[in-house]
């Protein structure tokens, strides 16, 4: 079991439909929250007792700067990477701007965050804690979807990185896990940076997904595939 009470945990995308609920779940378990998002006002509106960092993760060097700022202020025991964007449309019609934005935020920045955080998380392990990194690739990492080619690629690439990093980082006592929930009604599909969402079946309730993700952290799970979110 991973003890969350008193542990200092960073949640990126903390004002999002899923990130905000994960932050609340972690807070309920006694975690010391460190939250990041683009808007300082939106972070304050969460009403959570937390350290807050407003940052545009698209900016060059932002991932490293965020980790530096967080670790300068204290130890780091865990990271939940919950930020991301979505784009829709045929693969042949995706613009370079959309391609760059989706791949940067959904894949490159999470990799940069993980890389930057390893020394601090290794120090947490040496101090006797159970450090972790959790990413949220979603179902498209395993089932790439027509009309969402770039989004699917960004998440599949992230999952591949996590799978390899998991084997490397366990040697220093850092647990890395990826969650791949089915379509969830976070509202992200209504805010694409390009295109229009295709018709989708009703998704899972975000609170159910957030609760399951935090349970995976507490229960020392090493992977949270799509079936783990479905009724057994």
UniProtKB/TrEMBL annotation:
Keywords: Oxidoreductase
CDD domains associated with the record: SDR_c (cd05233)
RNA-binding is among the record's keywords: no
Gene3D superfamilies: NAD(P)-binding Rossmann-like Domain (3.40.50.720)
InterPro entries the UniProt entry points to: KR_dom, NAD(P)-bd_dom_sf, SDR_fam
SUPFAM superfamilies on file: NAD(P)-binding Rossmann-fold domains
Gene Ontology molecular functions: oxidoreductase activity
A cellular component annotation (GO) from this entry: membrane
Top-rank taxon, per record: Bacteria
Ketoreductase domain boundaries: 7-184
Similarity annotation: Belongs to the short-chain dehydrogenases/reductases (SDR) family.
Protein name stated in the entry: Cyclic-di-GMP-binding biofilm dispersal mediator protein
Species in which this protein is naturally found: Alpinimonas psychrophila
Lineage: Bacteria, Bacillati, Actinomycetota, Actinomycetes, Micrococcales
